[in-house]
Amino acid sequence: MVCEDPTAFPTTLVIDTSYGSTVSVVGEEPIHEADSRLHVERLQPNIATAIERAGLKPEDITRIVVGTGPAPFTGLRAGIVAAKALAFALNAQLLGQDVLEPQAVWQAERRLRADGGVTSEYRHFVLAVNDARRRQLYCRLYESVIEPADTSGLARVGLPRPVGDMDIAYPNDIVERVNAVVADMLGEDARPIVVDVVGHGVEKYASAWLNLIRRGDLIDDSVLHGAGVEGPILFARTAERHHADGDECPSEPLYLRRPDVSVPNPLKHVLNHGGADRAGSDRGVGEGKGGR
């Protein structure tokens, strides 16, 4: 279960700017900044406050786990740049973690608790989403993985199994894709299937989910915003599991959408004008004439 002893982790700072900003020392209540106009400028003060509230000094931080999106460019970049700079200054380990996978882990934990800590008879899927604006969502479908019971007799949530790639799409298109996947799985497995949808943007596009077959819970929230102290623990634990399995956990941002700016096309030749080279040649001729 997710309620692990935070002292089992190195002194870890979590930074995420995939939706507003969230900063927390693992084991402490996270600090949120929801205002998109302020979260970038408030990020550094919030980091300092989080460390101070934990009774620590910056040099006590030995690991930083940073959210890598997917999310829009500006906000996401601010968090990753801050995490990289801080990790360099403190000589701390830096691990990147996408924000969709912990959503699936969190919901699997909730389901497992509701089932009394024992495995259920159904296959559980989580469609993890994050608001991408422009009427789109970042998304990925995961199947929950429940590991065998330990000595306590309780099962444990493992890292979920991704079903398909991470993507950005319109909600109705997402529903069509998920329905196709579920339909195929229903034909190959007799167990019932349930699909929960979790993340920021679920409520905004509530009408789309009405067409989702095997629809389960609809939760407009995220692990870092809705799980209290447990959220950063789960977020950091997910990254640590990947790292322990040999994943480099890169901190590169996941934008998924191309930037709004682009490289301009080369200047066209107009009236047989030769461009810069021709202009330079003409200047040379003129200068030569003037020198005579």
Automatic annotation (TrEMBL):
Residues 275-292 have a biased composition (Basic and acidic residues). Residues 36-144 form the Gcp-like domain. It comes from the Bacteria. GO terms for biological process: tRNA threonylcarbamoyladenosine modification. Residues 266-292 are annotated as: Disordered. Pfam families: TsaD. This is tRNA threonylcarbamoyladenosine biosynthesis protein TsaB.
